[in-house]
Amino acid sequence: MCTGGCAKCLGGTLIPLALFGFLANILLFFPGGKVIDNNDHLSEEVWFFGGILGSGVLMIFPALVFLGLKNNDCCGCCGNESCGKRFAMFTSTIFAVIGFLGAGYSFVISAISINRGPKCLMDNSTWGYPFHDGDYLNDEALWSKCRQPADVVPWHLTLFSILLVIGGVQMLLCAIQVVNGLLGTLCGDCQCCSCCGGDGPV
Length: 202
Prior knowledge:
It is found in: Membrane. It is a multi-pass membrane protein. It comes from Felis catus. This is Transmembrane 4 L six family member 4. By secondary structure, the chain is an all-alpha fold. The protein has one domain. It has helices at residues 3-27, 50-69, 83-116, 152-187, 192-195; strands at residues 120-121, 127-128. It has a two-stranded antiparallel ribbon with strand order 1-2. α2 (50-69) runs antiparallel to α3 and α2 (50-69) runs parallel beside α4 (152-187). Residues 74-79 and 191-202 have low confidence and may be disordered.
């Protein structure tokens, strides 16, 4: 597959992942699927916007850049047919690194939050974090330590797990684009000369 075509495929995959990450983070503001009357009762990691910023906003821009590489005009740069395409591919590696860092941010935040568990109303009638070092992950009986909001533990665990997986996949795709972009920078895109009226691939 040509480097431009590969980038377009990666960009098309990143867009829905970014939207899912954005949505998952929004849902975390409604623990147990309910609206709470005090934002201080939300888990701290929700306010770090891992899915909104990391897997969402910071991923949309790289994805759009990747999508546009296939049709990028590769003529008229320094008098070389492939120069414009090569520069575009090099630029894509920079955006891929930005996307990788954003996804990594979301991944780390999600991992920390899963290990810490949700903030909830505990047996002593105070709001806090009743779990320690992910102990609730292997012992569902501990979930009863959270009295309110109802179903907050599975809600928290499911959504942050989704963000964890999305972040991991996005990191992998961005890493692939870094390699793909470098190959495109060094070798050009296989369609470059044909789109410019040349005789063969660069």
